[in-house]
Amino acid sequence: MSTTKQRKTTIHLREGQVIELPIRRLGINGEGVGFYQKQVVFVDGAIPGEEVVARITQIDRKFAKARLLKIKKRSAYRVKPPCPVYQECGGCQLQHIDRRLQLRLKRELVEEAFARYTRLTEIPIEKTVSMDEPWAYRNKAQLPLRRIGSRVAMGMFSARSHRLVDVSGCLVQHPLVNETLHTAREVVEQLKISIYDERKHNGVLRHLVARVSFAAEEVQLVIVTRTESFPEENEFVEKIRARLPRVKSVILNHNPNKTSLVFGEHSRLLWGKEKLAEKLGDLTYLLSARAFFQLNPVQTVKLYEEVRKAARLTGKETVVDAYCGVGTIGLWLARDAKRVIGMDTVPEAIADARENAALNGIKHAEFYVGEAEVLLPRWVEEGLKPDVVVADPPRTGLGQPLIDALLKVKVPRFVYVSCNPSTLAKDCDQLLEGGYRLQRVVPLDMFPQTAHVETVCELVRKPQS
Fold first, then answer.
1. pLDDT, tens digit, for every residue of 401-457?
2. Is 170 assigned a catalytic role?
3. Closest CA to 13 of 48, 50, 46, 57
4. Identified catalytic residue from 83, 419, 428, 457
5. Domain range for residue 276?
6. Tally of domains in the chain
7. What's this model's pTM, rounded to 2 decimal places?
8. Binding-site residues for S-adenosyl-L-methionine
9. Final residue in a domain of this structure, among 250, 280, 310
10. What is the CA radius of gyration of the chain?
């Protein structure tokens, strides 16, 4: 036998190198993914099926990034983005792709995650649930402010930078959100309100946040400040009320910390209603400034109907709504359940959930402040035996204690709502190994024009042999 070992050829790309490569699939951030002599290369703006010329901009141990220079073979699904700042903003990633392909690519993102992180050979995945009108769907925006000379700039940070891009006419935001934020910025500039400087950690006004009720067409305006108050408060409120009659509340949120988080822990009502009312189906939800609520109310109804299908309730079940927010999912399921129990870490959200239950005449739903990973295992230890658990966690996925509790108590049915295919698949792999079967996977296009995909997974306990 030869002592010379066969070695795989290692390709050493270098920054600035120009390469040609075919684009095979979509990356989780909306970039095109190709392979150059077996090395993964991410190319912003490239579409699966295209052949492109790109310049290498970054080399990592496992992949490289490149800038699109030329399209040698153009996709039939490439369209002109309607947004004038699409290339700069970074808020949307797929405006250059026809809607039909967007839906297929989002399904593939979920399918690829399950193929990569689970041992499944067949995935019971359905077509992506689309949105009829995929523009002006977002009910909320939270935009940072910067002072540039005498002007107050407001917008979103360009992808992978701290350069502010003006998005006052954003095409995916509800028009009232755009109008409110644009006018509020003008008032801030007119009153010469001090603007926060993140490098020096001084100044006052950090963010402007607007949330609209699609049902009532009313707006909740939140100003996030470093200080507990500011001298121009009354003048600001007066001018907002005069210029924006749809704004029904102005709230100050105090965030004194040097952090990238938008909201601080304490809010104070400056004028108007403390909470915004929104309707989903025949249910009304009251929303505090910090409370989480789905950003696309129209598509949320479709999402919750998929959750209802997956829960398969008969009226006899105890349902646990982990990460319940203002009680949206739990209350949506309550009409078909015997008992609903929810939990969330934000006290205002739980107060809203309790108020929402009373407002909608639902007496068999109860809500608690705390982490799902802590409360559910404790309740299980105390003897709670839920029939169905529904979880809609943050992008980081389920906490390990929650997975352990699900496996320990052998919850018969688990409905997982996820905004991150990778953590969804990783968590599901543990559940599958622990005795669950993946019954159904439904991708939903909650955020058209972006690479984000929401997924509803139905998992059931395998029969004991």
1. 999 989 988 999 999 999 999 999 999 999 999 999 999 999 999 999 999 999 999
2. no
3. 57
4. 419
5. 140-280
6. 3
7. 0.91
8. 294, 323, 344, 392
9. 280
10. 24
- What's the CA dihedral at 198, 89, 262, 395 to 10 degrees? -130
Extract the tokens encoding 443.
């991708």
Residue pair 268/254 in contact by the 8 Å Cβ criterion: yes
**Residues belonging to the chain:** 465
Are the C-beta atoms of residues 412 and 460 closer than 8 Å to each other?
Answer: yes
DSSP state of 85: T
- pLDDT tens track for 62-110: 899 999 999 999 999 999 999 999 989 889 999 999 999 999 999 999 9
If we measure between CA atoms, which residue out of 361, 364, 365 comes closest to residue 326?
365
Q: For residues 459 and 388, what is the distance between their CA atoms, to the nearest angstrom?
A: 10
- 318 with 263, same domain? no
User: Which segments are annotated as binding site?
Assistant: 294, 323, 344, 392
Higher pLDDT, 137 or 465: 137
Q: In this structure, is the dihedral angle defined by the CA atoms of residues 270, 271, 274 and 275, taken in order, positive or negative?
A: negative
Residue 171 reports pLDDT greater than 50: yes
Q: How confident is the model at residue 4 (pLDDT cuts 50, 70, 90)?
A: very low
Assigned domain for 3 exists: no
